[in-house]
């Protein structure tokens, strides 16, 4: 059973982005599972690194799209991405230093993904729909 699952309500109507969001949700689920099952620090560390890496790839995809279509909220959106990476980087450091970050990290990631996907990402959906880049469901 999955702890967090992709839902069609998350769809932004751009296939490449939806596919990446799906992968992110899967990695997040993998991380939750690793933590809940306490499968050892190595698994958590590897999964967290994977999440961070894929998140970076995904942010770059979105940011290139913003540039390409002159999205007016590009700056504010990118600031949210940067703040998230910074926060996860610091979690990663704490974890490597032996700190127990499980619950805090999961709460942060869960809140972040749900909120960012449903509010911040959703703002560009409206814009991209208006110029025909995103297709409504
Ligand atoms: Fe985003
Ligand atoms: Fe996104």
Percentage of residues in DSSP E strands = under 5%
Q: Could you give the distance between the termini?
A: 27 Å
User: What percent of the residues sit in helical stretches (DSSP H or I)?
Assistant: over 70%
Number of strands: 0
Radius of gyration (CA) equals 16 Å
**Uncertain residue ranges:** none
Number of domains: 1
- List the helices and strands in order: HHHH
CATH class: Mainly Alpha
What CATH architecture would you give?
A: Up-down Bundle
Structural class per helix/strand content?
Answer: mainly alpha
Task: Spell out the CATH superfamily.
Answer: Hemerythrin-like
Shape: globular
What's the number of helices? 4
Which hetero ligands occur in this complex?
fe (ii) ion
CATH topology: Four Helix Bundle (Hemerythrin (Met), subunit A)
Query: Which sheet architecture does the biggest sheet show?
Result: none
Report the average pLDDT across residues.
Answer: 91
Your description of this structure?
This protein has one domain: Up-down Bundle (Four Helix Bundle (Hemerythrin (Met), subunit A)). It is built from four helices and no strands. The chain is mainly α and 137 residues long. 74% of the residues lie in helices and 0% in strands. Helix 1 (15-36) runs antiparallel to helix 2, helix 2 (41-68) runs antiparallel to helix 3 and helix 3 (74-96) runs antiparallel to helix 4 (102-130). It is globular. The longest helix is centred in the C-terminal third of the chain and has 29 residues, at 102-130. The structure holds fe (ii) ion (2 copies). Residues 62, 77, 81, 116, 120-121 line the site of one fe (ii) ion.
